[in-house]
Amino acid sequence: MNTAAIAKVISGTAIVCALMCSCMKGSGLPGIVPLPGSVVAEKGEFVLSGESDIYIASGAEGMEYAADELKSVLSGICGVAALESDNPGASVVLGLSDELGVSSYLLDISPDRIKITGGDPAGVFYAVQTLKQLVPAQAYNGKAGRVSIPAVVINDSPKMMYRGVMLDAARHFFTKDEVKTFLDIMALHKMNVFHWHLTDDQGWRIEIDSYPELVGTGSVRKRTIVGKDPGGEYDETTVYDETPHSGYYTKDDIREIVEYARRRFITVIPEVEFPGHAVAALASYPWLGCTGEQYEVRQTWDIDDRVFCIGKESTFRFFEDVLAEVTDLFPSEYIHIGGDECPSKMWEKCPHCNRRMEQEHLDSYRQLQAYGTFRLEKFLESRGRRIIGWDEILEAGISPSAVVMSWRGTEGGIKAAKSGNYVVMSPTGYSYFDYYQTRNTENEPIAWGGYLPLEKVYSFDPYEGLDADDKKFVLGVQANLWTEYIPDFRQAEYMLLPRLAAMSEVAWSSASGNYPDFRVRLADFLELYRSFGYTFSETALRE
Ligand code: ACM
Ligand code: ZN
Hints:
Shape: globular
Number of strands: 21
Number of helices: 19
Strand content: 15-25%
Helix content: 25-40%
Radius of gyration: 24 Å
Bound molecules: acetamide, zinc ion
Distance between the termini: 35 Å
Structural class: alpha/beta
């Protein structure tokens, strides 16, 4: 995803106008999520089998990723790897057309062949995701041999260029293979930005060669709170499990995951928190804090006063070293620098921070934060990158190129868009998948709190409050999976699904908005979750 592509996709959405509804069901076609731009059922069906072959009509970079995805779908059904052919008359033909927009596709299934045309290789890949849903879910057993899929013409393109999902791997660690499954789930939903929250008070999860203690010390939490946090680190009623929680991603792990994502047309944006949510880093290198005190990696949740010192130059040397290694690993245009929930209590008492304020003529501690953010931004700019930050970065002014991730409602995003900054809308009220999915919480796994039912996610209008001129600054939307109360991957899937299906429709579908119709189509999609072994919340469906 880059900003140059945005204008193209915005104009592309204008041509997606065919309204679809449960007529898809009436036609005998399975429901497709997210809802495509137009679906026209044709007569007959195409038979996929172990003999189906694939012709790739374009040598453009990335076509092989789309072809690989198709091959894995076919072998998931038929149990044999599909063959690539040099015959343009092969059963499945993959090609490109300049007439289609960014990430757009035309999927044309007739009784004698399947023709997939993309505006780019990503479009071809998304067509394969749609094709997956046209296959009966029960056929994904590797034994079906042959399967009939209905003849149909589907014309589709994304509404938004940034279709994000955040995974907090700091509060609880998820293995490399679990992260890959997370990316598979994202791809199935046509989501294309993986925001990877890698550092926080409770864990530092990314290997940095120049500061080995970040993972040596910072990736190990002595114990983890069990049950609800009754209110703080030293509350006598807090119950812990006394088992250390640890884990981090080596550089090789990260390279592998970034490549795995790239082959699924997913950009990975790493988040390294600054200047708050810093305790794991401070536990590793106490000189990063205002007092130099030795701390432990935090064992409870919520906001912590212990943050990075902005007065000392050594903090900036640290961040430049860390970000240099981060940018070597992650090719994304954007790097997320956090910025949220940073108390100023330590700075107020710190001679270094106060000297910095005098020298730089800063009037408030929020300006001190903005000074630090600006320095990181300058450094990242020198490496050809741009910053994204949570909406707190707006409070004392930001540079025109910073992107704002609006989480405390959409107000921050609206303000930023109106002043010409790009924005990702990710407000708690629609995008926080750590909230309960049901009011009936008795039998639910413990969650952060809140209440975010499926229908509310579906009703999210990221453009509300913006006029036509401002809308173009909304890059897209993002679902956030904070994991304080998500100790394992099954529960992560449970919190993600099926709400991600609703968010995917907010992000992708121009012709959406009909919740009852979504629910009908979702029923078919859930069968696919079952076939692929994904855990999802049934209680969310009963709301
Ligand atoms: C956040 O939820 N603290 C961004
Ligand atoms: Zn300080």
